[in-house]
Specification:
five-stranded parallel beta sheet, 18 helices
């Protein structure tokens, strides 16, 4: 009799608990598997599948915010970031150290995590330092360590029909038996956050193999690795996430294809900038969808006809990456200014004994990537000799180390030269765009003359922050004009310095990547 009373008492209690869970929309998996890695969507902040899916959808449609890896994430705590590769030789880290790692560590909004299973973390992958095979290994390890309590509804391209729990002895069947039928119907959506039906390449309905998380692929290489080397990785992410590109973001330095240097009939060195790469077409797959017909339409086609769509392997726009200002260079400049008793506010107006410098010796480097820079140096030498030879103090030579050494350390003589010249001329390589020296020159407080970039770094405008020269004749004209007009030169140099130091430090780059609006196209 006592047992009957206990049962009668417990049943309403259990029913009330179930109703409370349903109404409060709490995550059942966090209650039952608190010690097990649950498959959550990055930035979900504790939302359940249905609430998070609707929030993410509304965000992507522009009703709640921009299209970003963390569009709907609460901002009350730092965002965790897991970086690949995990380790890399210190003397070869370059942008990996200067911008990705330094940017996360110095940011007040980001936090580096070394746990690939951290479900609160966004992944940032440096494609040039992390080969596709290395990424695949990390990606598959993460999948293997995520608890799955439901079966997929289709066979993946790797032959998997289901994913079983491998980090806990608890199974979906044992949990379902422990719950009533009303709560049991919620289990698939609870354990697969963001779950919604997709279609695979064959047109069959497919569910994500695991709950997706945000993955940002950054390609800092000179000539790009996305279209060939990293395509298999992007396809694997796409397939694993149930035929969806909603959580994959891509940024690269390589925006144009076909850049080269040539000499025209007059013997002038010119640059053919090439054509924009259509990543939405070239980094995509064909997907077949059955057309939906309106029964009221008199012109509907035959039922069952498939429509082929070109689906990019990423979401939003491919963002251009531009180098920022290295923190070690800023520290070196600050140290030199203290020795010279120059305040940071006075860096633009400080006395500069040199007139103009281009950090390149004629004929330096391999011929296939240094022709344009050599032509710029020759033009500046001609400029200094054609006008009164002793009037302008023009320098065209390498100062400090280049390549791996120069990218991983700052020479005193290089930082001193940045502070000692009124104008710093920079030029890009023959075959690609983007280099360290544009922002380094702006950080030194000089007026910067640069050849065209497509696009210039975010917020940097011609005639406002830098001067863009399109040919050698313009270069000579600008040198003469701004060396003779100090007030205009100093005004543009000041605007450039403020813009660079305010918006192009390492943490600015990484925060723009993680929190930025990927529905728009602009440079980092």
């Amino acid at each position: 009799m006592k047992r009957l009373y206990i049962i009668l008492f417990l049943c309403p209690c259990l029913l009330l608990v179930q109703i409370f869970l349903l109404l409060s929309n709490r995550d059942v998996s966090s209650l039952l598997l608190s010690s097990t890695a649950s498959s959550t969507m990055i930035g979900g902040g504790g939302n359940t599948s249905s609430s998070y899916a609707s929030t993410a959808a509304e965000t992507r449609q522009g009703r709640r915010g921009p299209l970003s890896p963390l569009a709907s994430r609460p901002s009350r705590r730092k965002q965790k970031v897991y970086v690949l590769p995990v380790s890399y030789p210190k003397h070869e880290q370059s942008e990996h150290k200067h911008f990705i790692l330094d940017g996360i560590q110095r940011s007040q909004k980001l936090e580096l995590t070394k746990d690939p299973r951290d479900t609160d973390a966004v992944w940032v992958v440096n494609a040039g330092r992390c080969p596709c095979d290395t990424f695949r290994k990390e990606f598959r390890n993460r999948i293997g360590n995520v608890t799955m309590l439901t079966k997929t509804t289709t066979r993946s391209k790797y032959g998997d029909e289901s994913i079983r729990t491998n980090s806990s002895s608890i199974t979906s069947s044992s949990i379902q038996h422990a719950l009533s039928s009303s709560l049991r119907r919620r289990i698939p959506s609870v354990f697969l956050r963001g779950h919604h039906d997709h279609q695979d390449n064959s047109g069959n309905n497919a569910s994500p193999l695991i709950a997706p998380w945000s993955i940002i692929i950054m390609d800092w290489t000179d000539e790009g690795v996305l279209l060939e080397d990293y395509r298999p990785c992007l396809e694997e992410i796409f397939d694993t996430f149930g035929g969806s590109n909603k959580n994959t973001f891509v940024a690269t330095r390589t925006i144009l294809r076909g850049r080269y240097v040539y000499s025209n009939e007059a013997g002038e060195t010119r640059v053919e900038y090439g054509e924009p790469i259509n990543y939405s077409q070239e980094l995509s797959i064909l997907k077949h969808h059955p057309e939906r017909h309106d029964s009221s339409s008199p012109n509907k086609s035959a039922e069952g006809k498939n429509k082929t769509l070109v689906v990019p392997l990423f979401t939003g726009h491919v963002q251009p990456i531009r180098y920022g200002i290295r923190s070690d260079l800023v520290n070196k400049i600050n140290s030199l200014m203290k020795k010279q008793e120059v305040n940071e506010v006075d860096i633009v107006k400080k006395v500069r004994n040199g007139d103009a410098i281009h950090f390149w010796s004629i004929g330096s480097g391999k011929n296939w990537y240094g022709k344009f820079r050599s032509a710029v140096s020759q033009t500046m030498r001609d400029f200094a000799g054609v006008i009164v030879p002793t009037k302008w103090n023009i320098t065209t030579e390498e100062i400090g180390a280049r390549k791996k050494t120069g990218r991983n350390s700052v020479a005193d003589e290089y930082a001193t030269a940045l502070l000692n010249y009124k104008i710093v001329v920079v030029a890009q390589r023959d075959n690609w765009e983007g280099h360290y020296r544009l922002m380094e020159a702006m950080a030194g407080g000089a007026l910067v003359l640069t050849d065209p970039m497509h696009p210039l770094p975010r917020g940097i405008e011609d005639r406002s922050h830098v001067i863009v020269y399109n040919n050698m004749t313009e270069l000579k004209d600008y040198l003469k004009y701004y060396l003779e007009n100090d007030e205009e030169r100093l005004a543009i140099a000041k605007h450039g310095y403020i813009a660079a130091m305010s918006n192009h430090r390492s943490w600015n780059i990484m925060e723009n990547v993680v929190f930025g609006d990927w529905s728009k196209s602009y440079s980092a």
